[in-house]
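Appendix B. Extra example for self-study. Work through it before the problem class; the solution is given directly after the inputs so you can check yourself.
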Amino acid sequence: MNILIKGGRVLDPSRNLDADLDVLIEDGRVSQVGEKLKARGGETLDAAGLVVCPGFIDLHTHLREPGREDKETIATGTRSAAAGGFTAVCAMPNTEPVNDSAGITRAILERAAAEGVVRVWPIGAITKGSKGQELAEFGDLREAGCVAVSDDGRPVASSRMMRRALEYAKAFDLTVIDHCEEPGLTEGFAMNEGPVATWLGLRGYPPVAETIVVERDIHLAEITGGKVHIAHLSTAGAVDAVRRGKARGVRVTAEATPHHLLLTDQLVRDTEYDTSTKMNPPLRGDADRQAVVAGLADGTIDCIATDHAPHSVDDKKVEYDQAANGIVGLETAVALCLDRLVRPGLLELRQLVAALSTHPARVLGLPGGTLKPGSPGDVTVLDLERRFKVNPERFESKGRNTPFGSWQLTGRAVATIVGGRVAFQAR
Amino acid sequence: MSGFPHRHLLGIEALEPSDIQTILDTAASLKEILDRPIKKVPTLRGKTIVNLFYEASTRTRSSFEVAERVLSADSLSIATATSSATKGETLLDTVQNLEAMKPDMIILRHQSSGSPHFLARHVRPAIVNAGDGAHEHPTQALLDALTLREKKGRLKGLRVAIVGDILHSRVARSNLWLLSKMGADVVLCGPPTLLPPGIDALASVTHRIDEAVEGADAIMMLRIQRERMSGGYFSSTREFHIRFGLTEARAKRAKKDVVILHPGPMNRGVEIASEVADGPYSVILDQVTNGVAVRMAVLYLLLGGASEAES
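Solution. Structure tokens for the complete assembly:
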């Protein structure tokens, strides 16, 4: 597929590039980035006044297929990704069945090839059935197309198993993504532990239950030489642990979600137990939130990831402690970060683009994250001035579970190009 | 109209001191009906109230039922063991079905904190919280306040010790809100395992019961559940009684005219010694009577005025 993206501000953190240039994509790959390029057949997209970035990659998406197609499918999930500006999503393995074997990985990739509108990079399970007992077949998973392993949603409780996973994964150059949670400290939790949970009478998840597992994983990565990526980091202690781990050369990377960057547990009280504020890890207190923002700004946290977790209305329209954990994020993440992090000056635009493209590609060794000629023709085009109101009823995702409904935001992705083909264009 | 500015009673937190005053004054004036030979007034005739109890309760449920009968409301009580909840029906489905029978009010006792707020968002009838998880139990705090006001003539400036399992207690939270709003001075006491994080923002906290009861005008003892031992919250009921229980000797450290409250059901010999529970300062049975008066006031204020005007 050919397309010429003309007259935009090209922002490519992988090459320290920030200039008004054209981008030409031919046969699905970036062929040239330069001035006054000419289209040789194919479409032209006028990007005057817009920002042209390497395609955004979400490291943390729950597509729910196979097994829970009532919540999301590969078709709806990838449409949702495109609408939010993502050209690729990494699909977490906690489907039904769990993606713990090559056959399931291949089935996901076949479905993605047939119905997906953005790239789908499957993540395999660390343990069979994500039960924490026996390692999954990492070699087979890698060969079938998995780009990492994770037991997301079911934290690896056993330190022994985590150690073995980090060691074994080295043979296949796989990164181990861990959902860091010490289950002994979080049993029955409904929200963050602290004054708000105390007032609401809800069981708390203390921030240290995350922090101590992050510390553990970093120490295990250090002695094994394995690569660990900390999923949805949400505490000041975890930021500190990653910062110290990186300083001494441990192969550790981390991601944070827009909701942990922008919201606090006070919202549970302000919304009087609205279940769209319930997720795992839970919204934290403001000191933790600010530490996560600071960790993103100083590079301790490499990536912004959505933890897109669609649920049906039935799973959320119940008592707070009975409600499912998770919110959808693909269609709000980029706009929220532009409006609430870049606009107030907490993060430079270049940093945001890196955290959404170059860094996620580097963390898992994925193609993309750059506009270097020869790279995949994946481009996200931003309009920093476009105003819009979040309307969950119009999401491409099947999930409506978001605490950001009715938020008025300025700035969003207006075009998503995957392999030179326009997967989404805002009207 | 009564001029009570709320449609529901979900918790004490949302009430203004003037609202609390109104409820207590109304309860005090309605209480007299309970001493009449014919304990019935037509105030809520034609109003339908559903008592929906998802947790076992003797005191609270019968107290609401008596209040409903005295005010001539038509009422219906549903306990979870006999309801469709046991067949897997969701709370909202159950309540929407009840709603279709056009009740004016639903009194809800439920183990999930926030469930009355959830219902208030989705159904039409007035919702009264009769205890939600570890969150609030507003009518309990109101009946405690009525009892204190009767015995002490005021709430402002009283020193009140609340002792026991604060962590799991909705009674403690509602009382803390109410007493703080009305200008009382609250001290909380229990083992650190049973004090929730951040609670010290609104009250002073101590782990020594002798300190807590020193000079107290009132002592409120909370129930200790034996199941908590397996969660590692305390070591034995024997040690709890010795270290945190209210004994006669300890009660003597309080003011001479101290009153001792307990929301029930009591564990004699654990959080409270029998001599204290049955002693002269115990107002535990006054609490029960005032429970009916306070619930009459709440029903009247949320449903009342209009129907009187019509009739």
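Self-check: Chain A has a mean pLDDT of 97. If your reasoning did not lead you there, revisit section 3.
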